[in-house]
Design a protein that fits this description.
Blueprint lengths: L1 H33 L1
Amino acid sequence: MCVFFHVAFFVFGFCQIKEGLIYFFDQLTRVVLVM
């Protein structure tokens, strides 16, 4: 059971990081386009 929670937490954290990277690159692209 503990292993399941660890895996779920890891996957959730990875998804959060991925969302953050997508948002970051989106903002970066907008800044470059404005320039």
